[in-house]
Design goal:
Layout (H helix, E strand, L loop, with lengths): L4 E4 L3 H12 L4 E4 L7 H5 L3 E2 L3 H6 L3 E4 L4 H8 L10 E4 L5 H13 L3 E8 L11 E6 L1 H11 L4 E6 L4 H28 L5 H15 L2 H11 L9 H17 L8 H12 L5 H6 L7
Helix pairs in contact: 7-8, 10-11
The chain binds NADPH dihydro-nicotinamide-adenine-dinucleotide phosphate.
Protein name: 3-hydroxyisobutyrate dehydrogenase-like beta-hydroxyacid dehydrogenase
Family: Belongs to the HIBADH-related family.
GO molecular function, one term: oxidoreductase activity
Length: about 290
């Protein structure tokens, strides 16, 4: 007997989530602001609710995946009373503060709340590569873990509902930082008419070789010990000038790489190898 589920929001991600629930045999009810998005899901057996309230009342487990926090509240605030006694799983991208606020709002309406960060693209939903981070009600997670596993590998982080959003944004930060460097690298080789496709395998090999160094940086960030015995920060800051100068000489924008140069210079000035500590200095130390 599979748990009935409701999916609110049928964008690219919501449709993938609803499809994965259908594939694993869950009675699935869907709703979307604009009609027509549910047609293909209805053909696969989904029940299409006429209103958001009808969608919520159809299932004990309500998954919402909308554009942003504002859209979540636009849809759910008017139907809040229908959430009482149900579990709300919010897979909409947002901030830790928004997650905590929505958790308080859900508690006020006597709904169990899980906030989630989807670390997958729609084609990866229902497949083993992706994962979804959850935080908030442990009881809700334990009760629905098997159902949520239909979407992607579920990983529970913490009772603080904001933790999943924090991890999600930190993981995206790592991804965007890496791709910012990738785009600069490809622009640099293309500025001398080297096809990006020809250079890409070398870039992949280099990034793959360098990636494990993040564990050294992580350990250094936690311990405060110097981590630059093999590659001193001063040497890196000196070499980095060549990267910037060459970019300018080749007519390649330095917008993606200037910030790292500035951070290396600050580390030299402050005689530290703890780049993480320099960035995090404005915040209290981690608990
Ligand atoms: P889409 O842009 O494809 O879909 C957005 C959805 O939000 C639509 O269902 C849209 O309804 C709805 N919506 C927007 N504004 C409102 C509103 N004011 N009231 C009601 N409904 C509204 O986005 P995705 O499906 O790709 O993404 C959804 C969430 O999933 C986002 O938070 C995103 O960050 C997250 N995510 C997406 C990933 C991806 O690769 N796509 C990966 C990981 C997370 P309508 O059809 O009526 O416009």
């Amino acid at each position: 007997e599979r748990t009935p589920v409701t999916v609110i929001g049928l964008g690219a991600m919501g449709r993938a989530l609803a499809g994965a629930f259908l594939d694993s045999g869950h009675p699935t009810t869907v709703w979307n602001r604009s009609p027509g998005r549910a047609d293909a899901l209805a053909a696969r057996g989904a029940a299409v609710a006429a209103t958001a309230a009808e969608a919520v009342t159809a299932s004990p487990l309500v998954v919402v995946c909308l554009l942003d926090d504002a859209s979540v509240h636009q849809v759910l605030d008017p139907v809040a009373s229908t959430l009482t006694g149900r579990t709300l799983v919010n897979l909409t991208n947002g901030t830790p503060a928004q997650a905590r606020e929505t958790a308080d709002w859900a508690a006020w309406h006597a709904a169990d709340y899980l906030d989630g960060g989807i670390m997958a693209t729609p084609p990866l939903i229902g497949r083993p590569e992706g994962f979804i981070l959850y935080s908030g009600s442990r009881t809700a997670f334990d009760a629905h873990e098997r159902t949520l596993a239909a979407l992607a590998r579920p990983s529970y982080l913490h009772s603080d509902p904001g933790r999943a959003a924090l991890y999600d944004l930190a993981l995206l930060s790592g991804m965007y930082g890496m791709f910012g460097g990738v785009y600069h690298a490809l622009a640099l080789v293309r500025s001398e008419r080297v096809p990006a496709k020809e250079f890409a395998p070398l870039l992949e090999a280099w990034l793959t070789a360098m990636l494990p160094a993040l564990h050294i940086d992580a350990a250094g960030a936690d311990s405060g010990e110097r981590t630059d015995a093999d590659a001193s920060i001063a040497m890196q800051a000196t070499g980095y000038v060549n990267l910037l100068d060459t970019s300018r000489a080749q007519g390649v924008s330095t917008e993606m790489v200037e910030a790292m140069g500035a951070l290396l210079n600050r580390a030299v000035a402050e005689d530290t190898s703890d780049l993480v500590g320099l960035l995090a200095a404005e915040r209290a130390p981690a608990k």
